[in-house]
Amino acid sequence: MAANTDKQSFWEHLNVLRAAIVKIVAIVTVFDITAFCFKEELFAVVLAPKNDGFVTYRLFNRIAAWAGGETRSFAVQLINTGLAQQFIIHMKTALCAGVLCASPYIIYQLFRFVSPALYTNERKYVMRVVGGGYVMFVVGILVSYFLIFPLTFRFLGMYQVSEDVANLITLDSYISTLVLMCLSMGIVFEIPILSWLFAKLGLLSADFMCHYRKHSIVIILVVAAIITPTSDVFTLSLVALPMWLLYEVSIFIVNKTNTRVNI
User: Per mean pLDDT, which range of 11-20, 104-113, 132-141, 221-230 is the poorest?
Assistant: First the structure.
């Protein structure tokens, strides 16, 4: 049986949805204003990957020093080319940070609205999919922030066709690339969750994924090329490699899921 057997009219459902939306907007607004007010702290996090003291660069420098390789520092200057551009970027960045911080509450409110219409077993699977999907989305953002974007920024920021041509990267280009790559990797990291769900529904098998592995690699490269904000092979490889690893992990998950279903 469904968790809630009480019959509600269309307008009662609409009132519940409206209340949930009002709460979501209120919480997001609070987080947005808070992020906007803490400008220094916000951009200390956002702009951290542009400095050679970022944790990822220090880690790779230690590995290079341990291996006997050469380590070198780098410096990339960000510039602003629009009169109101910095203020607009401040607002957009605060909005993204506010939505990200409020996302657990947003998911909770949406699930609370939908859950009364679900049966007990349906609610269990929805909680697994939503919870697992959110965790993987956050992991994808962290992987992009701490690994993919810093390495991409360092490579492209230091790349020069000639010493006579200096790199002056705009703040807008930096923020747009960071947001796009984090969002893209967050979506890409949903692959194992979707694979598990399709396997549970009997729509996907490990044999099918193994059979079309080569085709999937081609698709992964195409998708990586689409979501990559630059056209260089280095960035393409950084994005494609996690996608391929996630595909292999998904095969393992689907295989385990199919085995349990068959049992």
Answer: 221-230
Residue 109: count other Cβ atoms within 10 Å of its Cβ: 19
Per-residue model confidence (pLDDT) at position 47: 95
Residue corresponding to tokens 């987080």: 31
For the chain, counts of helices (H) and of strands (E): 11, 2
Residue type, 82: G
* 3 state SS of 164: coil
CA dist., res. 182 & res. 185, Å (int): 5
Structure tokens at 227: 């979501």
Helix axis angle, 171-188 to 149-158, nearest 10°: 140
Long-range contacts of residues 203-206, Cβ cutoff 8 Å, at least 24 apart: 204/254, 205/254, 205/258, 206/251, 206/252, 206/254, 206/255, 206/258
Residues near 57 by beta carbon (within 8 Å), at least 6 away in sequence: 150, 154
Q: What is the pLDDT of residue 127?
A: 87
67 vs 221, more confident: 221
